[in-house]
Amino acid sequence: MDTTSRFPGINPLAASQRETAGAQTFEKYEYQYHWALCRILGAHENYNDYVVFIELHEDVVLATSTDESVARFEFNQVKNVSAKPWGQKKLTSVPKASAKEVKNSILGKMIQGVRHKPFVDKLNSLDLVATCGFDLPPKTDGLKLSIISIGDLHDNCLKDIQAAIDKELGAYPLPKALRFITPDLPASGFQDVAIGRISKLVDVKAPGAKCNASTIYRVLIDDLHRKGTVAFDFIEWENLVKNKGTTRSDVERVISSYTESKGIEAFSQDLDDILTDLELKSNKRIQVRRAFERYHNSIRLERTLIAIENQKAVKDAVQRNIQLFEEHGAKYFIEQALLSMPEAIRDNFSDLESAQAAIIYELLSKCYEK
């Protein structure tokens, strides 16, 4: 019976859904990526260098350096689960295996992923992150820890876990790097929390600066999604970092692209002075000014990391030729900066005026940094 005509505003699809598992699975999947993003933001505030990989050996892997010779690693298995806190039985229970598949416990699977591997001695931590928390008796009564290390566990609990792992995998000592973490990222609403943490990070790094936190969030989470789906293996570390990793410089470029302490109006007088130095006719001055405004707007709107690379090339050209500006003025500087840009980058601009405007914009931005 059609009731919508008698009761306007009633949802015509208001009936219990046959299947909701897809939405729940998606939320759990997204939680891993947002936990990784928040881990990146934390590393960005504290680390001089880092690279984060999604879906590589574990859900989230953080390396402390982009230099493979000194990098140490943090492996994180991330679970968004609605359940009572996990105890030692939950961690070590082995599901029933089928004839085609041998299964491991939650903890056994994590240990299998690192034991006898060439990187095991470079592990800073092997972390199980679960939103439900953990019910593991501490060595010191009364402690309630968000991060539980092996050394924090009661001796009897540690012995029971070790015995269960030995039975499952054969004699193998529990890794000293093993930790159990109750995350501070909530199980739902984590998107808004991530955006808030981006705002907080920018405020710490550049107090008083204006930023588009939502756009920074979208660019970073989209890049994590893209790299998380890369399933190939890479022999060369450099290729792994490029194709699968998110580095400090990647994040810094995104944040700086959508953060500004001065609006375009601050450039107005200096832009007029440079256009005067270029001795352009009125129609060309108007074209450069319009291109300048378009460039300013484009770097504040949502872009991919590829677009940000284009801006980086312009900045690099300005940096390489900045001395020419100080010695010979704007006209010669812009000519040389344009010539020093890769041809592929120059081709991305629709006309000469657009390329000139981009160089002028990055020149003025650099001058304001001093």
Summarize the structure.
The protein is an alpha+beta fold and 370 residues long. It has helices spanning 21-46, 88-92, 106-112, 155-169, 190-205, 213-228, 237-244, 248-257, 268-277, 282-298, 305-328, 330-340, 343-346, 352-369, and strands at 51-56, 58-63, 73-79, 123-130, 147-149, 178-181, 210-211, 245-247, 259-260.
Structural class: alpha+beta
Principal-axes shape call = elongated
Alpha-carbon Rg, integer: 27 Å
- Work out the helix count: 14
Into which percent range does the helicity of residues fall?
A: 40-55%
Unreliable sequence segments: 17-23
Task: Give me the side-by-side strand order of the main sheet.
Answer: 5-6-4-3-2-1-8
Mean pLDDT, nearest integer? 86
Strand coverage percent: 5-15%
Largest sheet: 7 strands, mixed
Quick one: how many beta strands? Answer: 9
> H/E element string?
HEEEHHEEHEHEHHEHEHHHHHH
N→C terminal distance: 72 Å
Key traits:
14 helices, about 375 residues, two-stranded antiparallel sheet, alpha+beta, elongated
Task: Describe the SSE topology.
Elements: H1 21-46, E1 51-56, E2 58-63, E3 73-79, H2 88-92, H3 106-112, E4 123-130, E5 147-149, H4 155-169, E6 178-181, H5 190-205, E7 210-211, H6 213-228, H7 237-244, E8 245-247, H8 248-257, E9 259-260, H9 268-277, H10 282-298, H11 305-328, H12 330-340, H13 343-346, H14 352-369
Helix pairs in contact: 1-5, 5-6, 8-11, 10-14, 11-12, 11-14, 12-14
